[in-house]
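Practice problem: predict the structure.
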Amino acid sequence: FEAFKDSFDLAALAVPGYPGLFLFAAIGAAATVVMQSSHATLVLILTALAAGQITYENALALAIGANIGTTITAIIGSLSANVEGKRLAGAHLIFNVVTGIIAIIFIYQFMTAVDAVAGWTGIAEDNYTMKLAVFHTLFNITGVIVMVPLIHRLAGFLTNYLPAETAETTKPLYLHEAAFEFPETALLAVKNETIHLYHKAFEVMSQGINLRESQILESEDLEAVIEADREVLDIDLGEHYETRIKVLYNEIVHFISRSHSSIPSMYSEDLYRLRGAAAGIVESVKHVKELRRNITTYMVSDNDTIRKEYNKLRLKMATVMREVYKLEDKSGNIERDVDVAASLKQLEDLTAVTDLTRRQLHNRVNDYIAKETITSHMATSLSNDFGYSDQTVRALYSYANSLFITGEDEVEDTDENEEVAEEMAHEVA
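Answer:
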């Protein structure tokens, strides 16, 4: 500063009164923004003060500006953050700006307070380093005293000014206007979009039972993976249902409704079947929504019995989800080397064995309660959740059966399966 002050004299910028205070506060803020460090600015303030370039009053104004300028770092950092990070940066800015304005308005009172503290603690009259430290402490204490009672209002203001980001909704991939030109094209569009809906539902349901897609699709020993994995995935299932599943299902229903007026009636049965397949997917996601809370609670429980029972439910659903997924390739078409009939028969067998499993579950639950292995509350939750998992499995089978079959006999089978599912749902209720 001894060499620099001749070419840039801060003293020449001195303006008496409050205009000067605001000017030096602006200089301090600008210096901090350039250097991205309020600490570096304070070091320069002390050096300038020692070199006689600025007065003590100017130094305090520069320190106030440094506190305001440091908020820019937080603002820059928040640009890539979520909305909560942006709100926090906004709170930091408001805190320092409000406190800075208060400090400038009452600067002389602050100076008196600093001198008083210096006298009480034995700080020398010319020890500006310690005086700046005292001022900085008083500055932040004042900010806390003023802003803490206003936290709720500040939070409300920032929440309104920076609203939560709207979740991106899933868009249909195949339901275009051009598809209405030919009945076969419209039918294929609905079929492919229904498969697209299942892919989205697969993502949501996988996370809903706290499994990753790769774990379900790629694990050779799915049972071992489920037993070993206790990670609870962070997912808002309600939001995912609204933005990924429900909107896509609505688009399919709307497209089918429009198709009835432009394609021959001979295709109506196929469209109705595909609509039922899409409805089965939606029902599956709803059941997983009901299951998630207890699955999340009991899959990490220290009670081995209840944890293993809920892992069995997860395994049953994940197995069926994977078998359904195997009926499709990545482009959404049936794999030519897959025996669809055999795969559907395997799914049917998985669904049919549920009745036997239900009877076994009731016997196990009674035995658990008698031995006090689980509580009655756990037993009730397990029985109810078995019903939800059972309905999930049957809805997925209904989807696969409806999507990958043709012909009157197969349609009758689908209707029959839906009646069985309704009977099972009534029994669970």
